[in-house]
Specification:
By secondary structure, the protein is of the alpha/beta class. The chain has 8 helices and 6 strands, in the order αααββαβαβαβαβα. It has 2 domains: about 5-55, Helicase, Ruva Protein, domain 3 (Orthogonal Bundle), CATH 1.10.8.420; about 70-165, Dna Topoisomerase Vi A Subunit, Chain: A, domain 2. It has helices spanning about 5-15, 25-35, 40-55, 70-75, 85-95, 125-130, 145-160, 185-190, and strands at about 55, 65, 80-85, 100-105, 135-140, 165-170. The protein has a 4-stranded parallel β-sheet. The model has no long low-confidence stretch (mean pLDDT about 90).
Amino acid sequence: MKVFIEPIGKLINEFTKLPGVGAKTAQRYAYKIINMTESEAQDFANAILNVKKQVKYCTICGNFSESDVCDVCKNRPADVICVVKEPKDVIAIEKLNEFDGVYHVLHGTISPLDGIGPNDINIKGLLERIAKGGVKEVIMATNPDVEGEATAMYITSLVKPLGIKVSRLAHGIPVGTDLEYADEVSLARAFVDRKTL
């Protein structure tokens, strides 16, 4: 005997395709949909379809946009470029209200184990932007993992010889963490990146 009737089983299966959604969470989501009014379910379905139709990538930086060029690229000076792995990283930085430059989204990082090399991510677009002139600094804001570090080092090796300042986001011990609980890599990085008071 089947545990779920076919429509519920299909819906649960679709939810399990989302990252971080296991079978139990998918079931809860499916039950929530079943208990929605038809109008609420239609609004939910329309939101999914509309995001697929209306969201595209900015032709300059690769961030999410509703038009060919995103608002950041339209309205900010392009002399400082912050390089990130994916669009969600742009959102994280924008929430800080501390950065007034533009972004460049790589849509991945170099990962030889996964078969991803420099030509598989958007490094070429970054170099094309730099070649147009006017860029004073490139900030490497890739994740502080092996792939992010490798990508930052590779891009630095291409950009620095062009006479452009390349910087890296500082890494270290998060605020509120006791030294005894900090991992060795973060603690070592904190010593390397220490600042004079």
